[in-house]
Amino acid sequence: MRRVPKEVLAFVIICGVMAPVPLVVESHYVINLIILCNIYAVFLASWDLLTGYTGQISFGHALFIGGGAYTAGLLNFYLKFPPLVTIPSGALIAAILGLALGIPSLRLRGPYLALATFSASAIPSVLVSTLWKYTGGEDGLYGIAPISFNVVNRYYLSLALMGVCCGIMSALARSSYGLVLQAIREDETAAMASGVDTRAYKLKTFVLSGFFAGLAGAFYCHNQMHVGTEELSLSLSILVVLMSVVGGIGTIIGPMFGGYLLILLNEGLRFIEDFRLVIYSGAVVIILLFLPRGLLPSVLELMRRTRGLVIKSPSPKVEAVRDSASGVDEPEAQRGLSCEPK
Amino acid sequence: MNVALEILVYGAVQSGVYAMLALGFSLIFGVAGVVNLAHTAFYMAGAYLIYTCVSLLGMGLPAALVCSVIVVGLCGLAVQRFAIRPLIESEYSVMMITVAIAFLVQEAVTVIFGPADRNVKGFIDQKLEVFGVVDIDSQRMLTLGVATVLIVALWFFINKTKQGKAVLAVAQDREGALFVGIDPWKIYLRVMFISAVLAGIAGAFIAPTLGARPHMWEHPLVKCFAIVILGGLGSIEGTILAAIILGFCEVVVSFLISSYLGELVALIMILGVLMVKPAGLMGRGAVR
Questions:
Q1: Is 70 exceeded by the pLDDT of residue A318?
Q2: pLDDT tens digits along A135-181
Q3: Which residues of chain A make contact with B35, given a CB cutoff of 8 A?
Q4: Average pLDDT estimate for A244-263
């Protein structure tokens, strides 16, 4: 019997654990929060594919998210297209944006690429403010059709979105394709010398990353029934970077973990209202300084060391997380072979 | 004719502010290889500190200025020593921690002062007439004057003093500088201090004209990018030239077309330069 890839198994288990949540939790507020987490997980995973795996640092992921969201929002608002049409179109437009940003970015590396993505993502938000007659300006457009009026239905749709998109990205990252991406990240010249068409791979990754971010962005727009400049904002791009870094970049599942953790933490801190974002960003700074690899890889490392001493029978979710993370570690071990320094 | 003169005066003021801001950003990149995304957070801190000192604590203007600038400089030292230095080997980590710090400052400012604009009283209040026809508040002219003096002083410091030569030496070759007895870490601290102080002064002088608000760091950061990309990261002359070009282009577009499109100039400039000549006007290679 052919072995099921660990990533697929991990996502089946995560979805399995999360599926009964609406049966247990009554509060619509909590369910809505988890829907938000699911959508963010896709944003973060798509960012990680581009930046964590390929090393093409993007400070402008809001370009893709907002591109998808505005495409879906405008199509639905003016042409009354149903979500079934608008969400794929949003993803498509975001993929085209990925191509458009990817082509000029092929020549750039390091800080220059970061600055280019940063600036490129600011252009649409200025355009949206300029064309306020059609886009609603800062306030955005209200009255976008919801995906479903029932919160439980929306929950399962978002879970499906998260499971499928992140599952695909995780499997991609684990495949030989992902291995090439890591080779590009570690040493692009060496990857080229090994006969890899790094330009094609980088472009493909830009397009894929844009596609998934746009898909989730369009979903987000229908989920909120609103599209506004916050989906294009610099703050969103920065939030995506910070959440991923906290979770642990280059692992797909790490940034997702960071997203769930920080969104829930953000809500959990609501009792101190004003200070929560200060505490939140302060925590991010401290994690960056002391756990530069990110939370999830550090926690897993700790667990691996203490395994057998403390944890006798890990819960299925923990098992799933560890499985997928150790799966990610394997290509790392091979990396030295495929990509010797020049 | 009037419009041309107005563009000349406002463009010069704009360029002066941009040069003051971008020089620090460019300097710390050129010397330490640090892309400091928290740079305009210092600018914001300068604006809020002058507001606190003048409007809340009721201090006199000179004392308030000195206080603000010193505090901003100390913040710069702290950021360099405790946040950037441990991560300096990885340019990605530096970008991420500095962006996290900028976010932290933004949120702290929101908590302390609230999300609304804070207005700061002008340092001098009367209107001026330049060339007999251009009405401009004297605050702007003062800012231009301060910017010119500081830029000249910085150029002199870097090119003519022994300390400045040490900075250049570290920028050219860190190990080489170490061999002749220059401690690069000290130089980094010094450059960071200068860079933070320049940004803080720019913030303090701009606060009366633009007000202080928690998101004020975002747009100037993009402007800094545009300028250092056009001028070449790490080149002082290129940075000044690029600041002048950007300042005047923006003012021309805002005056003649629309102020919304003025914001786009910087962005289009960045992408244009990155696509056509990534090394900038006078810079070293972006494409390694």
A1: no
A2: 887 788 888 888 888 888 899 999 999 999 998 998 898 889 999 99
A3: 111, 114-115
A4: 88
| Cα angle B69-B74-B77, degrees, rounded to a multiple of 5 | 130
Position of tokens 């000549």? B277
Kindly identify which residue of chain B lies nearest to residue A115, measuring between CA atoms: B225
- Evaluate if residue B249 carries a pLDDT over 70: yes
In angstroms, the CA B84 to CA B35 distance is 10
Q: Where are the beta strands (DSSP E) in chain A?
A: 141-142, 226-227
State ipTM: 0.81
DSSP of B125-194: --EEEETTTEEEEHHHHHHHHHHHHHHHHHHHHHHHSHHHHHHHHHHH-HHHHHHTT--HHHHHHHHHHH
CA dist B57 and B55 (Å) reads 6
pLDDT value, residue A327: 42
- Residue A301, H or E segment: helix A295-306
In 3D space, the residue among B138, B63, B139, B106 whose CA is nearest the CA of residue B212 turns out to be: B106
Taking only the tens place, the pLDDT of each residue in A189-205 is 899 999 999 999 999 99
Quote the pTM value.
0.84
Residue A2, phi-psi category: left (phi > 0), alpha (psi -120 to 50), beta (remainder): beta
Interchain contact A15–B (C-beta under 8 A): no
State the nearest Cα–Cα gap between B153 and chain A, in angstroms. 28
d(CA A170, CA A327): 10
A108 — contact with chain B (CB < 8 Å)?
yes
Task: Compute the C-alpha angle A139/B37/A201, nearest 5°.
Answer: 85
